[in-house]
Specification:
single chain; about 180 residues; alpha+beta; Aminopeptidase; eight-stranded mixed beta sheet
């Protein structure tokens, strides 16, 4: 099982079926906050929907296509971080993340993204890690910027978000840059 201790307060843990109730409660508690930037929030309206999300994440993990992880802060789930669309031929992947509003402003996500980036590059020998964030999502964009990711450009109207399109800003980190 994937478990990566970041520091005394923070760990990344492979998501599991036993996390469904806690994760759903966390999502439901932060629904309005998460809905601002995440298009899946309205379709996750039951514990069963969360179980399906976990099942799909674990299938991707078993097929070596992604790492779905809970962010544990002092033993409690604070959010989700993971990789998706891992391309082993080109040694590239993409990181996605979200955090419950109660945990914002504590440096949790920056530490989690840094730890996952380090794990991907150092342990899994990934060459390119990408993060995409909505152009106006300043909080999400500040994380790759703080960690030294390179802003590569904008994907116009990349995502339909309930009633409008949003542009995405693309960031990347290459293995040789991370080691510096």
């Amino acid at each position: 099982m994937f478990l990566h201790r970041v520091d005394g307060d923070l760990a990344l843990k492979l998501i599991g079926p036993n996390d469904a109730d806690e994760l759903y409660q966390l999502t439901d508690h932060s629904r309005n906050h998460l809905r601002t930037w995440l298009g899946w929030v309205d379709s996750n309206d039951s514990v069963e929907d969360t179980r399906e999300f976990i099942k799909n994440g674990l299938r991707n993990y078993a097929e070596n296509r992604g790492i779905p992880a809970c962010i544990l802060f002092r033993g409690n789930i604070a959010g989700i971080i993971g990789t998706q669309d891992t391309d082993w031929t080109n040694r590239s992947t993409s990181i996605g993340y979200w955090l419950c509003e109660d945990y914002i402003g504590k440096g949790i996500m920056t530490r989690a993204v840094k730890a996952l980036t380090n794990y991907l590059i150092q342990e899994l020998k990934i060459n390119r890690v990408e993060i995409r964030a909505a152009e106006k999502n300043v909080s999400s964009r500040s994380i790759p910027e703080r960690l030294g990711y390179t802003q590569e450009g904008k994907i116009r109207q990349a995502e339909w978000l309930y009633d409008h399109y949003v542009d995405h800003i693309v960031y990347s980190m290459l293995a040789h840059e991370w080691s510096k």
